[in-house]
Write a structure and sequence with these properties.
alpha+beta, three-stranded mixed sheet, binds flavin-adenine dinucleotide, 10 helices, globular
Length: 392
Amino acid sequence: MSQDLFQAPDYYQLDELLSEEHILVRDAAREWVKREVSPIIEDAAQQAKFPISIISGLAEIGAFGPYIPEEYGGAGLDQISYGLIMQEIERGDSGVRSTASVQSSLVMYPIWKYGNEEQKQKYLPKLASGEYLGCFGLTEPDHGSNPGGMVTNIKDMGDHYLLNGAKMWISNAPFADIAVVWAKNEEGRIKGLIVERGMEGFTTPETHNKWSLRASATGELIFDNVKIPKENILPNKDGLGAPLGCLDSARYGIAWGAIGAAMDCYDTALRYAKERIQFDKPIAATQLQQKKLAEMITEITKAQLLTWRLGTLRNDGKATSAQISMAKRNNVEMALTIAREARQVLGAMGITGEYSIMRHMMNLESVITYEGTHDIHLLITGLDITGLPAFK
Ligand SMILES: Cc1cc2nc3c(=O)[nH]c(=O)nc-3n(C[C@H](O)[C@H](O)[C@H](O)COP(=O)(O)OP(=O)(O)OC[C@H]3O[C@@H](n4cnc5c(N)ncnc54)[C@H](O)[C@@H]3O)c2cc1C
């Protein structure tokens, strides 16, 4: 990729809504992405290689457990700082942000919220430092949007549980040291458990040939009579609400992350349009390209305001799951639309790896599907405002 010339748009002076700490945290992440992610990410994506060398850097900028208390190795930051870190990382690449989201919200969060003190002490500091990489197994081959129908199960064998089943589309799976897995017990109740690499009967085959999130490793989790020690069950919450609580945190981070991807596409298109001369003038001087660019900055600004407000609600413990769904859905669609428009602004150059836009565009096709599809988030808003579920 050519040199990273990114300049973040702030059309409504939103920096004035941020504290000094927010800006420090964000700028540190922004600099790190420019220095460590931008130079290697295009190659990693082209080769479909997970850039494992950046794990320690992600830990250093506080991307693993930004809001987890410092006593467990987290950064002890608020929800706005967490969001800003996700925004900056996804400005670099959605796959890298996925790695951080999974580690923080889908592995560290459930251990922190639903685990006992021993589990927290055992796993959280290692996950925060990047010594351990984690993954989150909810989706199954036959249960995606409807995870409550899962068939992966545990049987109580007295001194341990026996785990059987399979999970699919699991980010980080091929490299993960531990997996937070959701399985039904004999009463049909969903329980969370920690499965460790090396347990007999546990394998994590990689999923190949993705055109999206190519710099993020995806795989399956296969459980064939895996013996799970009883101390690996997360004791403090069960039922579908437990994994959904993790998804709230991850979806909130995605809402911010999508703004980062959109900013990068807009910034790239704006610069290119001002430099590219056709018919003896910059294409930025044409009404058609100005319409595209003006609509991009308008949508980014609206998303920034929506998401900042959501962050303040989360800081006050007042954000609802439905509000998070609305922001995730709106912002990812916004980013995908901007990526598609921005790619056209670059003409043929837009399809090359010289620029980040096509990579963002392909990545966002996963982001609009995972952590609840675009349709499902609409149905969540529909349920919230009407009180009537339309899932079935
Ligand atoms: C790259 C990638 C990484 C992922 N990482 C993880 C991970 O780390 N952990 C994990 O557990 N999962 C992960 N997922 C899985 C992801 O969360 C699921 O793909 C997602 O929940 C959708 O499930 P599905 O693909 O089975 O689609 P389906 O549920 O089969 O949906 C197919 C289509 O039908 C629509 N649909 C479904 N139900 C309804 C309904 N009631 N009304 C109207 N339309 C409906 C959907 O919106 C969609 O358009 C990942 C997916 C991808 C692509």
